[in-house]
Amino acid sequence: MPKNNKNKKNNKKRFTVEEDQSIEEVLDQMKQEGYQPVRRVEEPVFKETKENGEKKVEPVGRKIVFDAVKSE
Fold it and tell me: Taking the mean position of all CA atoms in its chain, how far away is CA 36?
C-alpha cells in the first residue's frame, strides 16, 4: 500500500536573505509561513571585469539562502 505523500513541491521552499534584511528577520518570516530551516547555503556573488583585455572575476559579496520544509 503506498504512503500518503503530499505534494512534495509544496513542502519545500527557499528563502533568500536580501540586502536590507537580517538573518533573524528571514528566520521569523519562515516561522510565520509555517516552514522550518533544514539547510543554510552561502553562495558567492562575482563581478566580471576586463583589465588589459583579460576577463577577471572578482568576488563582491555573498548571498545567503535557506532551504526549508513545511512544519508538521
Answer: 13
